[in-house]
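Hi L.,

As promised, Helix-turn-helix transcriptional regulator:
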Amino acid sequence: MMKNLQDIMSSLPPDRRAQVEARAEALIAEEMTLRDLRKAHDLTQKRMAELLGVGQESISRLEGRADMLLSTLRSYITAMGGSLDLVVRFPDRPPVSLSALFAAQNGDKETTRRTQ
């Protein structure tokens, strides 16, 4: 007899079950789309359009795009109250934040900095 996921999860010790659930949530969060992020913040396309000063159809198109300018993505995330960080990672070096890409928009003088 084949067990279903509910049976398997309920048979795990509580600490292991919590680990599995936390990892599942992390994996789901990594795969969120812009639409998912907007909905998670209880925002409609109409409200996002108002926040960004564009038409609702522009938000619909933006959420369906696989490729966009970083400045567009940054504006979208900022309108939701978030911030966008771009971090470069190489296996043999510490991570580096490319904050210089956004410095011109912010008027910041900060360029590239290492992250923790």
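Strands lie at 87-90, 93-97, 113-114.

Thanks again for sending the construct details.

K.
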